Amino acid sequence: MSADPVVHVIDDDEAVRRSLDFLLQSAHFKTRTYENALAFLNALPDIPSGCVVTDVKMPEMSGVELLRHLRHKNLRMPVIIITGHADVPMAVEAMKSGAADFLEKPFDDEVLLTAVRSALASAEDVSQREIERTELQQRFATLSKREREVLQGLVAGKPNKTIAFDLGISPRTVEIYRANVMTKMRAVSLSELVRMTLIAGFPTEQGTETRPVM
Prior knowledge:
5 strands, Arc Repressor Mutant, subunit A, alpha/beta, five-stranded parallel β-sheet, Rossmann fold, elongated, 9 helices
């Protein structure tokens, strides 16, 4: 897991909030509690990474609305929705909106703890990919215009001669640019270079970009 992941508990019922907080701390999770979704949002962006456990029905902003708000801001913190029996359709809607899990009341303590462990593992994976994507984008930024053009040709599967013809340069010059790209990107093979472009969302065709792999 990340250095100090935090479980952010959001529930307008103080008794439930305290109960969840006690359970999670007993299982050695770090926690923070919020009386509603707005209180949580007001703490952004200074809250530590981790996951969210939230009731689906709350005044002012529901758990589903919170989830959509986080996704709109591209905040990928995993969200676990807690729901009553009558709220299951709303929880299903939350899952479609990207919730990591939903738990129907009453649930066993271990079910919640398992869901939290899974969410935190997922959060770490996303965080590591985000770090890798940022690092790769920084490497791409060091490429010259011509090196980027050669890279686009390589990722498109074109041989050196075709790239050379497209760019109006010699195959030998393409080889030099290709070597420069491999060095700057720290790639040991063409397949690794292609993987890097997928993770970073580098344009593979003129005017288009690959979607970053998350």
